[in-house]
Amino acid sequence: MGDIFKKAIKHRKEQTIQLLIKLDCYKSTDNRQLYELTLSELENEYKLLTGRRVSDSI
């Protein structure tokens, strides 16, 4: 995986974590810390809470 792609994924994860924290969500529904989740898992958590996709909010 290229460095640019890795940086983009990391940035998207950080943005999604910040959105979840703003919603007072600090752990996943299975009780894991947000930083332990993959990007897909973070996006699913966001969708569960809001009913919207993350891309609609960033």
UniProtKB/TrEMBL annotation:
Q: Name one Pfam family in it.
A: Fur_reg_FbpA
- Give the source's domain of life in one word: Bacteria
InterPro entries reported in the protein's UniProt record: Fur_reg_FbpA (IPR025072)
Q: Tell me the protein's name.
A: Fur-regulated basic protein FbpA
Traced from the root, the source organism's taxonomic lineage reads: Bacteria, Bacillati, Bacillota, Bacilli, Bacillales
